[in-house]
Amino acid sequence: MEPLANKARPQTLDEYVGQTHLVGEKGPIREAIDKKHLFSFVLWGPPGVGKTTLARIYANALDANLFELSAVSAGKADIKKLADDQHFNNKVLFLDEIHRFNKAQQDFLLPHVESGNLTLIGATTENPSFEVIPALLSRCRVYTLKELSDENIVEILKRTKIKLSKKALEWIVNRANGDARQALAILDNAYNLYGSVTVENLESSLQDKRLRYDKHAEEHHNTISAYIKSMRASDPDAALYYLARMIAAGEDPKYIARRMVIFASEDVGLAQPTALVVANEVFRAVETVGLPECRINLAHGTVYLAQAKKDRRAYDGINSALQDVENFGNLPVPKHLRNAPTKLMQDEGYGEGYEMYPEKKDGLPEKLKHRRYLT
Questions:
Q1: Which of 170, 173, 174, 181 is nearest to 125 (CA)?
Q2: What spatial distance separates the first Cα and last Cα of the chain, rounded to whole Å?
Q3: CB 120 within 8 A of CB 109
Q4: Could you identify which of 157, 253, 306, 318 might form a hypothetical disulfide with 231, taking C-beta atoms 3.0 to 4.6 angstroms apart as the criterion?
Q5: Which domains does the chain carry?
Q6: In sequence order, which residues have a C-beta less than 8 Å from that of residue 294 and are 6 or more positions away?
Q7: What pLDDT, in 10s, does the model give residues 143-164?
């Protein structure tokens, strides 16, 4: 039986729900469709907000030949086969979860996108700045899709024509967390099991008992805040608890690992410089291992950072220096620190009196010569 999410999928831009900043009047995707402009782009956003649907609508509207691959299972051979196929013009490759392609695979894809042999539409839930190689990213526009609003989810559910009470509708919306696919799956499951959709039927049919962040993401911010503050307070027990909360709620483990890398320099800093090494290796392990096993690496790093000595001097120092840059602009660099590649610069005193390891520290501009950022 075809899933409800497929049956309810919009076929045209006018049927598409949400993302008005992209598909509304003067939105870039609508403009591209209206002008028949074929180009490569990446769709970045949370699950179930319409990335795949938007890619299909775009390709179909431009009469392009759309080929869909998932980076989870596809590889270089699939890209080569598609690129070498001469039976089709205007080949559009929709690569779902593009962040799963490693650097070598992305490098292999690059020349085909650069030459125009393939038009790429990538979809990802991860920040493309971290997950897509710069050379490929520079050849694509990046469009950010937002979590669907409650009103968007209600509109999508009502289009299914399945009878829903107000309470049942609210129940699904509250658990969908802005994910249309999740909302339709919940509705589909209850309807197929019981033939009608009530709150009681929905509760009985829902098998996913994982903790969820609340729909406005407040719990997300509260939990990561508690996690960081627990490590800052050298409380590994509390830090592990909030780490477990995030893992159980389905938080992206790479997001947690990135916060650990920041914490290693911001809060541990000079007191234990190896903390940054550990945090970076945790991030690498998360990328390599993935869940559920990488929870062990996250726990290892969490306990290490919580128990490490703390020193925020480097963090406070760079903030103070940035404030002075903002306040005073580009103050003249002392002449003895300037580069002197020409005779004229040498005659002007550039580089004069420079010492590689001076006893007196006089590297700051004259106006800030008594300033100390590392206290």
A1: 181
A2: 68
A3: yes
A4: 306
A5: 19-144 (3.40.50.300), 150-205 (1.10.8.60), 218-307 (1.20.272.10), 316-368 (no CATH)
A6: 253, 285, 286
A7: 999 889 899 999 999 988 888 8
